[in-house]
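Mods, move this if it's the wrong board.
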Amino acid sequence: MTDAAIHAPAARPSVWERTRGWIVNPWGRPRFLVLITWGYILWSIVPVLIAIQFSFNSSRSRTIWSGFSLRWYTQDPAYSVLHDPDLRHALVQSFKLATADVIIAVPLGVLLALGLARWRGRGAGTSNFIMLFPLVTPEIVMGVSLLLVFSHIFTFVHTGTLAQILGHVTFSISYVVVIVRGRLFSIGRQYEEAAADLGASPGVALYRVLLPLLTPAIVAGAAITFALSIDDFVISFWLSSGASTDTVPIQIYAATRAAPLPSTNAIASIMVAVTLLTVLVGFLAYRFFTRGERTPGGGLVGDMAAFDI
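Not the wrong board. Structure tokens:
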């Protein structure tokens, strides 16, 4: 090879080659990840924001904006959320079911998680599989199954509030178990063993050592259980006994089959706000209880990703 060939400048790549290299370069920064992420966020959030916007519309239209008003929240004497007895009762019923679900499912889920995590005998694997069964069962199948159970086996449980609470506990308890078990496996058994070495009984070790360490998972489980329960439609619908036990999702479903008013948007907006507030409170409580465990430099996104662990 001649000196001229060695020192000759390399040929510049064509526009197509540069474009292809920019797209398929495996060592460069992700170029479309941000675009895809924001596209998904806009696709999922913009319709909700539009529905919330029309809940503040001053007219009955749900497509034409006529000006800002609280008419469908408090001001309309007949159809606002405050003055419509059906919407008001549905809101109370949703809160009642979600609160009862948290009160029952969280303690049972914590105890079940402790038992499954510490069980080493025959049947432990089967029990762990059965515990996960409600998570993989379609909700419509669970709703119909619970209705059949209460109609033909446990006939003393009639459809209505009690049946709805039992149905919500049945499908939400698995979420608590998964979250608490994850926390149990992450902290290990060394703290319990250290407490036993210092003379603590199993009960004292559980109350004074293990439960405080499980508090972040318990808070996360309670927040997720409340958010899932207050938004549930399928199980609440199948186990409802009529208008007296209708929840907000059932009311929204019934309204959309007729001629819905902006008050439907208003009560849906209230549910969205309550759900977001529940998750935010649970997340802040999680950050408070794990403030000594976070590594330096860990940000808000990392804490959110670990919120349900």
